[in-house]
Give the backbone structure.
Amino acid sequence: MATKRTSRKPRPVPHLSVAERAELGKAARARVPRSSQGEFAAAKGRPDPVELLESQAKTRVPELVPIRYGRMLVSPFTFYRGAALIMASDLATTPDSGLPVQCCGDAHLSNFGAFASPERRLVFDLNDFDETLPGPWEWDVKRLAVSMMVAAQDNGFALKHQEQVVLETVRAYREAIAEFAAMNNLAVWYSSLDVEKAIEEYGKQFAPKLVRRTDKNIAKARTRDSVSAFSKLTEMVDGEPRIVAEPPLIVPLADLAEGRVRDEMFDALQDIVRSYRATLQRDRRELLEEFRLVDVARKVVGVGSVGTRAWILLLLGRDRQDPLFLQAKEAQASVLEEFVTPSEFANHGERVVTGQHLMQASSDIFLGWVHVESGLDDESRDFYVRQLKDWKGSAEIERMEPEAMDVYGRLCGWTLARAHARSGDRIAIASYLGSGSSFDKAIVEFSHAYAEQNKRDYKALVKAVDSGRVAAERGL
């Protein structure tokens, strides 16, 4: 089970002047007017959204797929979270300025959050890169903007507040891109969003009750680490810690297989850990080698990811008070891959890790990848690995009032712009966007139109479940 590495011939890199890069943006604006970015109409022959979801189910764990559908049925917003492939198919029919970036591929508002940097600061950033691939920057902006619209509708916001949160999000993106376009390269690379500084800046705008709740959530995020996971997810069995079963969401290896088969699977997972270590920096590899694998369990994660194979691995360091939880998550082809240039990486785990390093200001110290030929099942699979939790915090979207969602939208817009500025031509994109609100208003139009399409697709899934076409397991 060796890790596959990709060898690539170095390509020449053009170095245009600032003026030449700005001219690229102006030329793109002439080809693709900013107002055209507001257009959306379902294409003739648009694929059936349920068929697209069923196509993804073919490569997933069959007994877990109904959980995915059940989670998507909770609301139009949870449906949207799981509908990245459906939207990618639709975005491929929309205007494209021809200025590529490293796309997140699934930049909805719940895929942003707080986590610990290696320097032990709480930072705000994108935190899901399963679909990352180079592509049009507009696709990420539209995915984010529509998520704001759909969430605002789910929260019962008035029409003016629905539009305002989208405007705030897109304006923050446009203004941030302009700021990054004026910075030197290293300044862009070192830019990050410190959570405590953000609270200090925006906290004065909120009611004391909301500030207290935010402070409480931040304090709670700082407790979410391997030690807290150890206390919640394990019990002692014959003198060794074991992951507690919570089927079907958490199923320990001992409950998935017995006897020799279980031992072979555990040995295979130990080999996976050893192979994955080779993708880490030398210092982090040395650190990981001080831990031993103790137990493994299959875990259901997310909404869109449900059914892909995800394992949580319990390791111990110097003693039983020194736990480390890793998550090995299957990496399949990006939902964007059918509509843009295919990934340059043979290993989709490497694709995810490379995209994450490109887009995040700082990444998990144990972020790596591995290719598995056999041992867990009969299929060849790619995985990426990271810590299960490291001060992880997420916004309580369903409790947000309009004012709070406006601020959250600005944070997400700034963060997405920073991510794009690291990999794309920030000067050309800023030139395309300009200093006015034409693009912002166009994206509000697009968000309205696509939110309605999302509702129709949501109803299509409801109908498919009611008719028995697909099975859904709710409440998990």
